[in-house]
Amino acid sequence: MPKPHGGTLINRIVSSSKKERLLEEAESMTTLKLNGGLRKDVENIASGVYSPLEGFLCRDDFENVLHHDRLSSDIPWTIPITLDVDKATADELKREEEIILQTETGASFAMMSIEEIYGYDKDHMAESVYGTTNEAHPGVQKVRNMDDFLIGGEITQINETDSGFQNYNLRPIETRVLFKEKGWRTVVGFQTRNVPHLGHEYVQKTALTFVDGIFINPIIGEKKTGDYLDEVILDSYQTLMDNYYLKNRAVMSILQAEMRYAGPKEAIFHAILRKNFGCTHFIVGRDHAGVGDHYGPYAAQDIFDRFPDLDITPVFFKSFTYCEKCGGAVDGFICPHGEEHRENFSGTKMRKILMEGKIPPEHMMRPEVARIVIDADPKFVE
Amino acid sequence: MTEKKYTTVSIPIPLAKKIKKRMEGTGFTSISSYVTYVLRQVISSIEEEEQQEGFSKEDEEKVKERLRALGYLD
């Protein structure tokens, strides 16, 4: 099993013996409410998903990530994990050493040691992470909407919050023990934010041919309008696994994080998170974590050349199509037939068929999966 | 804003010449970027060999209990 990123699996979830004391101390502390995305970041730091991070980035790490795609310790890291506040809050928090972090509904769930409060250049951040300052990019829009100051410092999680999917929510220590118990020495991670069609299944099973197990890891959290709802993704994958995968070769649990649509930079980030879960390999397809035409179709694969020390093996796939002559999913490397015999696994086309309450052709989507989507109401993020 | 941070390392000139030759056609644009790449690769593989299990037996048993309760383990 690969070592966690940076060498140590971070655990900043308070032990039960210290919890009571911390909760008492918390009563007199200044509080800061976090939105859902930031709350998930805190939980991912605490449980080790974001190892080696132990808190929100201080300036030195932040600047290193933007300039070099690495933390100041030279460990690869491509997405800055930051906590932004407005000027009034920054001024207030300058007087504090420790604060309590709360959910949007006011539940205290973590403590943060304030190490640094600093300003930053939003254009520089957008250009570095997303490769553009074009406001049509959802990530750029998000940076523009961020407050003007960042707080850096370690966090400690005191209470768990409810993701709504607790049965599918495994921490890295849990997936690592699970893979070990299953006897998997090699595990390929698969990131998804879609319901599965036959093209996805083909990619997963092709990769599975070469490793001991597959870790299907849907991203759960804020997405853009029109994306499938989390429940629909989970139910459709569970159905697919129940019907078409060997139980001892496939595992699914969720990754609670926001999609940033940062394309190549996010592909590296996603690979790091899967390494922390215990994966030795990570599938990177066409336009991974892309949006619109902001990135080249294989930019998210090319970027791996720049990280010889990532310690997780990327598994690259080109796009697959269905070939009626071959009678299966193919790509240009294995199929001699012309374009006239091929049909794309078009998510847009399948979505249209499903929205009409019809089942797509069986060579495109498993009927059991299609039925889950058809029966779901609503199906998409509105 | 923080500047990009670099330091200088001296290597023998014959080695630098050898590296320059080796770099041809690799896409690397400087000896520095090539040396940085190779050193990161070497250090990473040394660290990989030094790895240890990150959790105790006690932690592992607790985790197994939860995994069984959730149906991930029989």
Protein described:
- The complex is a heterodimer of chains A (382) and B (74).
- Chain A has 382 residues and is of the alpha/beta class.
- In chain A, 44% of the residues are buried.
- Chain A has helices spanning 16-26, 36-47, 59-68, 87-93, 122-130, 138-145, 172-181, 198-208, 230-244, 263-277, 299-302, 347-355, 367-375; strands spanning 31-33, 55-56, 83-85, 98-102, 108-113, 116-119, 149-157, 187-192, 213-220, 250-252, 255-256, 281-284, 313-316, 321-323, 328-330, 342-344.
- In chain A, strands 1, 2, 3, 4, 5, 6 and 7 form a 7-stranded mixed sheet that branches. In chain A, strands 8, 9, 10, 11, 12 and 13 form a 6-stranded parallel sheet that branches.
Summarize the entry for a quick read.
The complex is a heterodimer of chains A (382) and B (74). Chain A has 382 residues and is α/β, with parallel strands linked by helices.
Keywords:
heterodimer; A: 382 residues; Sulfate adenylyltransferase; Rossmann fold; 2 domains; 6-stranded parallel beta sheet; B: 74 residues; 3 helices; elongated
- In the CATH hierarchy, the third-tier topology of the largest domain in chain A is known as Rossmann fold
> CATH-wise, what's the superfamily of the largest domain in chain A?
HUPs
* Order of H and E elements of chain B: HHH
Architecture per CATH nomenclature, i.e. the level-2 architecture of the largest domain in chain A: 3-Layer(aba) Sandwich
What is the overall silhouette of chain A? globular
Order of helices and strands of chain A: HEHEHEHEEEHHEHEHEHEEHEHEEEEHH
End-to-end separation of chain A in angstroms reads 40 Å
Unreliable residue runs of chain B: none
Provide the domain count of chain A: 2
Query: What low-confidence regions of chain A span 5 or more consecutive residues with pLDDT below 50?
Result: none
Q: Can you give the mean pLDDT of chain B? A: 84
Query: Strand portion of chain B, in percent?
Result: under 5%
Name the chain pair whose interface involves the most residues: A-B, 28 and 27 residues
Q: What Rg of chain A is obtained from the alpha carbons, in whole angstroms?
A: 21 Å
Helix content of chain B: 55-70%
Largest sheet of chain B: none
Sheet having the most strands of chain A = 7 strands, mixed
Distance between the termini of chain B: 54 Å
How many helices of chain B? The count is 3
Structural class designation of chain B? mainly alpha
Helical proportion of chain A, percent range: 25-40%
